[in-house]
Amino acid sequence: MDGVTVDSVAKTLQVQMPSTATEAKAAYQKGFQDDGLLLSFVLPTGAVDGFLTQLKPEQPLSLREQPLPRNTNSTTPFSHLGLPEPDLLAGVREGQVCAPCEDNLNWLKVAVAPVDDRTSRVYLSGVD
Q1: pTM of the model
Q2: What is the pLDDT of residues 42-101, one digit of tens each?
Q3: Do 100 and 116 contact (CB within 8 A), yes or no?
Q4: Are 59 and 21 within 8 A, CB to CB?
Q5: Model confidence pLDDT, tens digit, residues 15-52
Q6: Is 108 exposed, middle or buried (0-12, 13-18, 19+ CB in 10 A)?
Q7: Taking the CA of residue 38 as centre, how many other CA atoms within 13 Å lie in the half-sphere pointing to its CB?
Q8: Sign of CA dihedral 112, 67, 24, 96
Q9: In the chain, what percentage of residues exceed pLDDT 70?
Q10: Which one of 12, 20, 58, 117 has the minimum C-beta count within 10 Å?
Q11: What are the C-alpha distances in Å from 92 to residues 7, 16, 66?
Q12: Please, what sign has the CA dihedral across residues 103, 25, 69, 60?
C-alpha cells in the first residue's frame, strides 16, 4: 500500500524499533481477509538478543543451519523489498513470536540472518 512507513508497520506489529537499526524497510499488503505486514532492518549482532527479548517469543528461536530448498518457498515477500529471502539463507534463527497476538494482529514471526561478522538482518512478518 502507498504511504506505508517503517514506523507505521512497526506500530501495527507492536514492535519497538531499536535506535541502532539501519537499512529499515517495510511493506503492507491489503488482502481479501487478512493484511500482510513485513518489516526488516539491520542491527549490530550484539544488539539482536536484546531486541528479541522485547518480542517475548512463545518458544526459543530455532537455528536453521541450511537454506530451505527453493521449491518449499512458495512466496517471496521480502524480495519485493529488494532483500534476500530468509528461507533461502543459512544460519538463520527463526520462530513464531505470537499466534494469536494482541489486538488485531493474528500472528508474528521473526527470522534473524547474519549479514557479516558485525551485523544481522531481522525479518518480521505478520498478519493483521
Answers
A1: 0.91
A2: 999 999 999 999 999 988 999 999 988 865 545 668 988 999 999 999 999 999 998 788
A3: no
A4: no
A5: 999 999 999 999 988 876 778 899 999 999 999 999 99
A6: buried
A7: 21
A8: negative
A9: 92
A10: 117
A11: 25, 22, 8
A12: negative
What's the first-to-final CA gap in the chain, in angstroms?
14
Amino acid in position 96: Q
pLDDT of residue 73: 47
pLDDT tens profile 55-72: 999 889 999 999 888 655
Alpha-carbon span 25 to 38, nearest angstrom:
8
Residue with cell 537499512: 23
- Cell reading at 62: 530455532
Phi, psi (degrees; rounded to nearest 5) at 86: -60, -30
Dihedral sign from CA coordinates of 36, 66, 61, 123:
negative
